[in-house]
Amino acid sequence: MITKIQLNKVATFTEPTEIDNLKEINFFYGSNGSGKTTISKLIASQDSFPDCTLEWTANNRLKTIVYNEDFVREYYYQSPNFKGIFTLGEGAKEIEEQIVNKKKGKDELSNDIVDLTKTKEVKETEAGNYLNDFKETCWESIYEKYKNDLDNIFYGFRNNKIKFVSRILKE
Fold this sequence. Notes:
Elements: E1 2-7, E2 17-19, H1 36-44, E3 53-56, H2 69-75, E4 76-78, E5 86-88, H3 92-146, H4 161-170
Antiparallel strand pairs: 1-2, 1-3, 4-5
Helix pairs in contact: 3-4
C-alpha cells in the first residue's frame, strides 16, 4: 500500500508537496488543473517522475493499475472499421494495425499472382507460337527441301511435323 506521496517540479506541484496518512482506498477530487491526473500518472509510472516519490508499506512496491485517460487510451481501442466495438487490452491498436497491414500485403500478393498468371499465359502462348513457327520452318527448309534426296533418313517422319521437329530438337 502507498503510505506517502511526495510531489515536486511537476505540473501544478512546482513546490514540494506531501500527501500522507493514506488509507487502502483514497479519493482525490478537485477542480480542473488541481493535480489529480498528475497524481494518477505518478502512481502509474513512478519512474517517469524523478523529482517525485511514492513510499510503500514495508518498502514493498506493488504493481499498480491506474484507471485514468492514459489507461483508457492504452487499453481501450475503438476500431475505425467497427463503430461501437472496443478492443480491450494492451497493444490492441497495434495488433489491429498489423492485421490491416497484413491484409493489404495479402491483397497485393493476390494482385501479383493474378498479374503473373496472365504473364505466364501470354508467355506460354508465345512459346507455343515460336514452337509452331520453328516446326513449320524445319518442315519447309529441311524436310520438303531434302525429302526426295534423303528418303531413307526421313523414314518414320513423313507426314508428321511434330515427330520430325521433336527429333531435330533431340539431336
